Inverse folding.
């Protein structure tokens, strides 16, 4: 079957357009329990009005006592709130969150949990932070407004069962509206896979995840991308990467940081060629991609709560337009029932989010780790950060054995997973033991699936769980790096990262080619 077979909707005759009422409008996100941002915005608005009223009275009535009183009361309330938040955050984060998540409708919970989610969500990006919390509080604890159940079996069971989702990127809350397709007549709908529930979840959005995922995989990761991955254009890109490596200091940070050359420049061109069929020599297209992919942090903020409200979406729209006209979507048929009536615009916008959040950031980071530019996290009490993987890459790894190189990549991803957590929403009330006490949390509570925690769990990986050992027998079958238990696709692993094999195969070739170059230089020295 060719890629072309995939692109044509299997259930529609060409040219037939679906009536607009077949399009499912964007439904409100499930479980209002978790969407607390509106409450916080409301509180801020009340405070702003309060202060505004004070100012107005002050200017209207002159130096009047009543005006000053209103103004001072506003300032005082704000200061008190800020002070109590700082105290809670610094001194009682875990215990406050246990209480607040058990009492989600209490105004204090409503007020503080979203702020804790934002601040602690940023800290939790570092896998060592969550491991530190587990050492402090035990297997179950709270972090970033979510309950963390870090037992390996719990994580595995979450990954293997249907999940209810909310707009979260692991521990970080996202702005749901920044994912809306916006193309469908009669209203836009949420197409962002990470925020959509599985097909057996009860709410409306649940019917979309499977078909939308299928549409994305069939159009961007089908046979066309497989053949492009090894054709002459892909090989030429790998040649350029090798040349850049030699010219840019054999692994100096410039090779990883440069936006248009080196590792990042290669991956931007290579992934857009393989997945979307875009011409890597088209400099005008590469110019359009640069603002979005040339760096990680700033463009990513567009999706993160609340930072995204202060960013512009211009470059996202330009890239989505570029994707719409990409060779991979040339013959795309819109409104196919099997893909839940997806339009080209919706698919392109979904792909922008996937490329920005998963494909570029994750792979650039993992590449930087396996090539020794980015050290492992500083896990407290362990010397993991001191491990120099270049010593293994240069002297121990059998570069002629692709399976050995793959295991090396998986071991790096175990110790430093680019995506260290995902987030689901509990469908039912549940109990968890925390700090020696049993706590009951209501349905709707967010639960963090800690891939990073599971991958250094000594009960599974043994006493050497924080050491580097690419010969671990469980690596392929128990890695959680790609959102499933192990790398083998299965019926249960419905949310397994579909980019897994592209990432692993590319990194194996890159490590082999650059590794041989390094050994040649080492020999000469
Ligand atoms: C080292 C690189 C990568 C890592 C570690 C990684 C890991 C992950 C993880 C852990 C998830 C689940 C996130 C969640 O549910 O909250 C995920 C989802 C996803 N990834 Fe990747 N990914 C990588 C690269 C890629 C690439 C290159 C693609 C290219 C298409 C890709 C496409 C996706 C998609 C479409 C999803 C959503 C799957 C779904 O919800 O059904 N990823 N990835």
């Amino acid at each position: 079957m060719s890629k072309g077979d995939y692109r044509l909707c299997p259930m529609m005759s060409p040219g037939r357009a679906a009536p607009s009422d077949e399009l499912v409008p964007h439904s409100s996100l499930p479980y209002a329990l978790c969407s607390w941002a509106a409450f916080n915005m409301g509180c801020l608005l009340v405070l702003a009005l309060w202060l505004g009223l004070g100012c107005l009275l002050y200017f209207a009535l002159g130096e009047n006592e009543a005006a000053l009183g209103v103004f001072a009361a506003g300032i005082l309330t704000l200061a008190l709130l800020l002070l109590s938040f700082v105290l809670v955050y610094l001194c009682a984060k875990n215990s406050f969150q246990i209480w607040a998540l058990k009492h989600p409708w209490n105004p204090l919970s409503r007020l503080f949990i979203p702020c804790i989610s934002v601040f602690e969500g940023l800290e939790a990006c570092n896998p060592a932070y969550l491991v530190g919390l587990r050492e402090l509080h035990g297997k179950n604890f709270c972090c970033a407004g979510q309950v963390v159940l870090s037992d390996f079996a719990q994580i595995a069971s979450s990954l293997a069962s249907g999940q209810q989702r909310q707009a979260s990127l692991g521990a970080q809350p996202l702005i749901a509206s920044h994912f809306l397709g916006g193309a469908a007549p009669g209203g836009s709908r949420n197409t962002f896979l990470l925020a959509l529930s599985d097909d057996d979840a009860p709410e409306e959005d649940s019917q979309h995840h499977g078909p939308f995922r299928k549409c994305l995989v069939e159009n961007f990761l089908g046979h066309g991308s497989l053949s492009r991955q090894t054709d002459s254009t892909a090989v030429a890109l790998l040649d350029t990467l090798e040349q850049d490596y030699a010219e840019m200091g054999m692994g100096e940070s410039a090779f990883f940081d440069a936006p248009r050359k080196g590792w990042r420049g290669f991956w931007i061109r290579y992934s857009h060629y393989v997945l979307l069929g875009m011409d890597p020599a088209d400099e005008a297209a590469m110019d359009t991609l640069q603002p979005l992919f040339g760096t990680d942090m700033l463009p990513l903020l567009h999706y993160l709560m609340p930072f995204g409200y202060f960013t512009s979406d211009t470059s996202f729209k330009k890239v989505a337009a570029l994707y719409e006209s990409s060779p991979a979507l040339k013959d795309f048929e819109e409104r196919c029932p099997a893909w839940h009536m997806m339009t080209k615009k919706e698919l392109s916008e979904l792909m922008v989010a996937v490329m920005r959040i998963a494909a570029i950031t994750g792979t650039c980071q993992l590449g930087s780790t396996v090539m020794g530019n980015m050290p492992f996290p500083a896990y407290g009490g362990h010397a993991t950060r001191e491990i120099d993987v270049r010593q293994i890459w240069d002297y121990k790894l059998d570069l002629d054995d692709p399976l050995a190189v793959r295991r090396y990549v998986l071991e790096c991803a175990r110790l430093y997973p680019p995506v260290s957590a995902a987030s689901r929403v509990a469908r039912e009330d549940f109990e968890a033991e925390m700090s020696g006490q049993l706590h009951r949390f209501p349905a709707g509570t967010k639960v963090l699936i800690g891939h990073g925690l599971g991958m250094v769990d000594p009960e599974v990986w043994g006493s050497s769980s924080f050491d580097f050992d690419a010969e671990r027998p469980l690596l392929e079958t128990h890695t959680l790096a790609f959102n499933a238990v192990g790398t083998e696709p299965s019926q249960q692993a419905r949310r397994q990262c579909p980019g897994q094999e592209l990432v692993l195969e590319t990194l194996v070739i890159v490590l082999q080619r650059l590794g041989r170059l390094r050994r040649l230089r080492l020999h000469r020295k």
Residues 193-194, 213, 216, 275, 354, 358-359, 362-363, 366, 418-419, 422, 481-483, 495, 497-499, 502-503 surround protoporphyrin IX containing FE (CB under 6 Å).
